[in-house]
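User: quick one, fold this
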Amino acid sequence: MNQEQALQTCLEEHTPVICLVSVLGSTEEGAVDHIHEIVGLQSKFKEKELNLKLSKDLASELERLGIKLRVLNDPPDTNIICFIANKEGYNLKEMNKFNEDIYNELKFNPEEAIQSHDFIISCTTFPYDKYGNSMKEHLEQLKVPFNQFEDSEIMILRCTNMSPWPALRRGGKPDYITEFYHALKKIIVVNAYSSLSKLIKKQEDKREDWFQACVYLLNRVKEKRKKGFGLEEISNSIKSEFELELNEEELKELSSN
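Assistant:
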């Protein structure tokens, strides 16, 4: 079996790949692998997401709720992934606060046992005087004016994979990538729309898809606002359709974008 066939088998069987070893001049025979072909395989299978890549599916899902997710080192070549989230309409200051809130829910709490943390992320800041134009494209994607970055800084979230087997299932639980994906998605959504926490809990209690329900509810509220419905009318409609009571402030939050 050649390298490409072996990698394809790993992809199909969801077998984690730690590394692909090649030889450049062995001591016995001076054998040399075709390094350029192996580098090509690396790029090919990265596109198929054999490596750890959080951005593609999660970013497209969050986009449906008006939330941008930007991975800075994409595709990641290390076990550290740096990323930023932003809610539509937020300026740089609001975006930094948004990411700080996400970090606070996933940071290490020294007053609790390490085993009580399902996931831990870290954070850092990128000041303008050190990163300048390197952040221009990222800020454009996050819909933040670049001039707001001048004489300021950007808060960056960091996820470090400490396991060589991130795709390994453990005792019936999902693999680390899938579990972190769902945990991060929920935390981002709740911090963007605190009013959706009621619906999320309701759907989880029923073991139903909370994310699709959130997208549907958000679109319904915005649709009714565009048609000129008042908040009280929308509230009654949501109560009837979703069996969910939302106050005026919660409805304003959902229709703010």
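User: anything notable?
Assistant: The two ends are 53 Å apart (CA to CA).
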